[in-house]
């Protein structure tokens, strides 16, 4: 009897280990869930969105795996990211923190803000004002914004917002180094991104984690807790469930 119990315990432990290995492999090689904790990508991504991120979209590096084990110093099966991709990456400053931003500049590109417009390789990114009013979160405050539909040279369109009370007007020229990328938050005046060279800066291809593909769940975590079931109607964003990005 004792031997049978021991065998059952050992079998259960083996099953848990196998399940853990499978879960780690799926998370590392296929898709990983991510949570959006900040408003830097509004209106595209909202605080409380849960995403599935493709881990194979750009190939694999050490950052594809939990805790970024230093097993390999290069990227294997590399696939070039495209302008407009929503990219999850490890911040170059610590190689640990996950950020998500939109890829605007590729290696060799130049970028500059001039009078509030983005110039990519000296050509202004097409920007069309959207006739909507919106208030955007930035930390614990809200501010009114101007909404634009921007179109990248490859035809990718998305909405970006700029603070109505004043936005970033002019910058120096950014020149993207080889094997690096320039990424921006869609919430232009509430985003730490490649414009801030000492905090984020250019993102090396080794730091790419994956491409955001799908919102599988979303709820307004700033105004309501999941535990408060009586507020679910107002908290859950059902229209965002299974929204393709």
Description:
The protein is mostly beta strands and 245 residues long. It has a single domain (2-244), classed as Umud Fragment, subunit A. It is 13% helix and 34% strand. It has helices at 2-29, 232-235; strands spanning 31-35, 49-54, 86-90, 98-105, 110-114, 117-120, 123-124, 126-129, 134-138, 141-151, 157-163, 174-175, 180-184, 203-204, 208-218, 243-244. The strands form 3 sheets. Strands 1, 2, 3, 4, 13, 14, 15 and 16 form an 8-stranded antiparallel sheet that branches. A 4-stranded antiparallel sheet has the order 7-6-5-12, with no helix packed on it. Strands 8, 9, 10 and 11 form a 4-stranded antiparallel sheet that branches. Strand 6 and strand 7 (123-124) form a beta hairpin. It is globular, with a radius of gyration of 21 Å. It starts with a helix and ends with a strand.
